[in-house]
Write a structure and sequence with these properties.
Elements lengths: L15 E5 L2 E6 L4 E21 L7 E17 L3 E9 L2 E18 L13
Parallel strand pairs: 2-6
Antiparallel strand pairs: 1-3, 3-4, 3-5, 5-6
Length: about 120
C-alpha cells in the first residue's frame, strides 16, 4: 500500500490583493490622512501585472513574469483609494482587472455643524 501526503497552497483563493493597513484614520472629518500602505498580491501563474490606483490615471508599477510581489507607498489621502491589479497583455491595451482592494478613509470626529467662532450666552 502506498501513502502520500499532498500539501496545497490554497490556490483556489487566488488571485489575491492585500492592503495593510486597509483603513486610514484622521482625527477630524475633512482632514487629510497620512499613511504608508503595504500592498501585496499573489497569482496562480506568472505573468505581466500592473498596479493602478484611483489617485492617478497612469500605472504605479509593473512586474514581469512573476506570481507575487510586494509594494510600499506613502500616501496623503482625503477620500477612499481603490487599488487595482491588472493583467497586462500585448493584445489588451488597458489590461484585464484581476483584483481590487480599497483603502478606506475614516475619522474620529465628525465636522461640527456650528461655527467655532459662535458666541455662547449663558
Amino acid at each position: 500500500m502506498l501513502s502520500m501526503k499532498v500539501y496545497s497552497n490554497d490556490i483556489s483563493s487566488l488571485p489575491k490583493l492585500t492592503l495593510t493597513p486597509n483603513q486610514c484614520i484622521s482625527l477630524h472629518q475633512g482632514q487629510q490622512c497620512f499613511v504608508t500602505v503595504n500592498i501585496s498580491w499573489q497569482m496562480s501563474h506568472a505573468g505581466k501585472y500592473c498596479l493602478y490606483s484611483s489617485l492617478q490615471n497612469k500605472k504605479i508599477t509593473c512586474w514581469l513574469m512573476t506570481k507575487s510581489a510586494q509594494f510600499k507607498q506613502e500616501l496623503v489621502i482625503d477620500k477612499d483609494v481603490t487599488f487595482t491589479l491588472k493583467s497586462m497583455d500585448d493584445a489588451i491595451e488597458n489590461g484585464e482587472v484581476i483584483a481590487n482592494a480599497v483603502l478606506e478613509l475614516a475619522w474620529v470626529h465628525k465636522k461640527s455643524r456650528r461655527s467655532h467662532s459662535a458666541w455662547r450666552v449663558f
